[in-house]
Specification:
Length: about 300
């Protein structure tokens, strides 16, 4: 078995294997290589879980190699490919190929119309702590990766949440080409600017912003960019809320850029990252940076309570 982040040697096509999560399913030994009900249903469950983790809600099967390999995937799509397209020595997999259209339909239906029993682990529901909503046009739309990180920033200004929303929106006179998912105003109020399901423009790094929920925090304008107690306390509350909604039991922080970015985040963890790791900035400021170990330990303790 091979971790999802690594390329398996599975289909005879390095190009396909680099782009795919490959799955071997128990089947009969002879053509049409039928798959029994239990592994079939487990594969459906696996596909739903996989797509939830990668923020997709549409599984595509086109039934044709050329059409599939030339299909421009939308951000919310995954596409089914099959071994026989890439290797003449592969089993014909007739039974499975005949059922892939049904699989795509069932998985997509479960993702787009979840019942309580199949509700997504990753609900993209936004925080109920939000008191100000001011959507920014500065975002990339649907994420292409699962949420694994929280990235707090310092605003370098003691703004209120609505003021930060104005700054992120040219329609209200904003000049910033950036955005964040959330902002915490100087009085501790929470603003929502980019839905959690969407990627903000916040950390000078697409890879991080695809994986992270970004939070701008009102702060002083000069070093060490101190924050009011109300801001810090709300940051703890918001981090706890995010972790709970995504089924996490630990918030982790490592005071080491290279270690953090190479770290394989466990299923029950959320990782804290910071803007200064991706750009020549002091963000989130030394005041908050020095407190991030406490943010992680405090939130983790609350999650365990």
């Amino acid at each position: 078995m091979v971790d999802e982040e690594n390329r398996a040697w599975s289909t005879g096509s390095p190009e396909n294997d680099h782009r795919a999560v490959t799955v071997a399913i128990a089947s009969d030994k002879t053509d049409p290589y039928a798959i029994h009900a239990t592994p079939y249903n487990r594969f459906i469950d696996f596909a739903v879980d996989l797509m939830q983790r990668y923020c997709k809600d549409t599984l595509v099967y086109l039934g044709n190699k050329d059409a599939t390999l030339n299909h421009p995937l939308a951000p919310n799509e995954m596409i089914l490919t099959v071994y026989p397209w890439f290797s003449s020595s592969a089993p014909s997999s007739t039974w499975l190929i005949n059922n892939l259209s049904n699989i795509a339909t069932e998985v997509t239906n479960r993702l787009q119309n979840p019942t309580p029993a199949s509700a997504p682990k990753y609900p993209f529901s936004n925080s109920s702590l939000t008191s100000v909503t001011h959507y920014s046009p500065n975002n990339s739309g649907r994420r292409t990766y699962a949420i694994q990180r929280i990235t707090p920033h310092c605003v370098e200004g003691q703004l209120i949440a609505e003021g930060l929303g104005n700054w992120f929106d040219s329609a209200t006179g904003g000049t910033s080409q950036a955005s964040s998912n959330y902002g915490i105003g100087r009085n501790g109020e929470v603003g929502l600017y980019v839905d959690e399901r969407n990627r903000s423009w916040c950390s000078s790094n697409e890879n991080n912003d695809q994986r992270g929920i970004t939070i701008e925090c009102a702060s002083d304008t000069t070093h060490p960019y101190a924050m009011y107690d109300a801001v810090y306390n709300t940051l703890l509350d918001l981090c706890e809320d995010i972790c709970r909604r995504y089924g996490k039991t630990k918030l982790v922080f490592f005071d080491d850029k290279d270690y953090s970015l190479a770290y394989v985040v466990k299923e029950d963890e959320m990782l804290i990252t910071v803007h200064r790791w991706f750009s020549s900035k002091s963000c989130p400021g030394d005041w908050l940076y020095s407190r991030l170990p406490n943010v992680a330990s405090t939130v983790t303790a609350r999650l365990a309570a």
